[in-house]
Amino acid sequence: xxxxxxxxxxxxxxxxxxxLLARADVDARVLAGGQSLVAMMNLRVxxxxxxxxxxxxxxLRAVDEDADTVMFGxxxxxxxxxxxxxxxxxxxxxxxxxxSLGYRAIxxxxxxxxxxxxxxxxxxxxxxxxxxxxxAIVQGPQGRRSLNCAGFVTGIYETRLAAGEIITGxxxxxxxxxxxxxxxxxxxxxxxxxxxxxxxxxxPARHHARIVIGATDGAPxxxxxxxxxxxxxxxxxDAFRLAISADLDRAGDRQFETFHRDLHATSxxxxxxxxxx
Amino acid sequence: xxxxxxxxxGVAIADDVVxxxxxxxxxxxxxxxxxxxxxxxxxxxxxxxxxxxxxPARSCLILAVACDRHxxxxxxxxxxxxxxxxxxxxxxxxxxxQCGFCTPAMLITARDLIRRGKxxxxxxxxxxxxxxxxxxxxxxxxxxxxxATARSLAGGNVA
Lengths: 277, 159
Hints:
The complex is a heterodimer of chains A (277) and B (159). With 277 residues, chain A is of the alpha+beta class. Chain A has helices at 14-23, 37-42, 58-61, 78-82, 93-99, 104-107, 112-118, 124-131, 224-231, 237-250, 258-276, and strands at residues 7-9, 28-31, 50-53, 63-65, 69-73, 135-140, 143-148, 153-155, 158-159, 166-173, 180-186, 196-203, 208-214, 221-222.
């Protein structure tokens, strides 16, 4: 199908984009890489009246780093992360994730901020950024604020972004030298959206251990009990099976079918094994 | 209507487009470049893959209006490209196409895999082609043609 009629503006700066978004008296959507939004427009699942194209704004494509964190502009592409063209705070996790995401033609356009803002339940970055304890930097009519990526997504295509706000960057803490991670994506075909995905991060020096699963028909799920066990640093498959199961039981708002529950338990255990064993 | 200026297959052009017009419809219907094929129209089949600023992209997921000041190359624009010449030859010799609908995008994707050094094994080529669907299911010969091209260019001057 073809997209419905829409207006389009390409502002020259972030301030101009924010002003346009604040002023818009029609259904305005921010367009970054467009790799989901344009598909949704073609299918007429999304019918915005105005597109504000931020993909090429230089301030959203920059990457800054200091000793403790890397700050990714929201419009850094998956391919740039995959290819190591930008700094990697995650000791290989983020490039591995980027390479697993869609197809190269998609990764050349799709952006990390766009992925988080759309909050597709099966998307990789919301779960991975939550596991890495990243922060989303957002700017809007009320100014600038920072939100933890764990908890940023609140549901299917729902986030804590307020009206008029744009994600400008993602700040990701650097893993320390002894940190390890695991990442498992279960999909029937390479490049497909995941049926389950799991991320495990264990960084003893920073007292950070977090297991997150995605593709759960809702926000990424932090597995608290498994995370606590992970902090111990020892891989005991049976203990982790019990902890994961307890975590999935506690996620009372999700109606996991048996098959998907098994997939999530399996991907979580495999990711933890990668990180610890 | 929005005025756009872009480079298309090496030539500077100017046009006026409505914002909802996708790049693939612009190429096929406005510029008569029908080598770019339109399949699923939501980014899954890969048939509409072109180069945007030198990198493969889905022309069904890009609005023509967003291509203002960018460089677009379609399958019609590779006449002087040595890697593409080698790929054409291998696809021809090894029967790397059946109906041909997916072929232009297969070639553009294959060229990118070779250029990035991602065509070193059958498994690597197959992973790299996951986003390009051949509904004739003629993958065996497509993969063989790409592998043969990568081998013949190995050590040579790959653009």
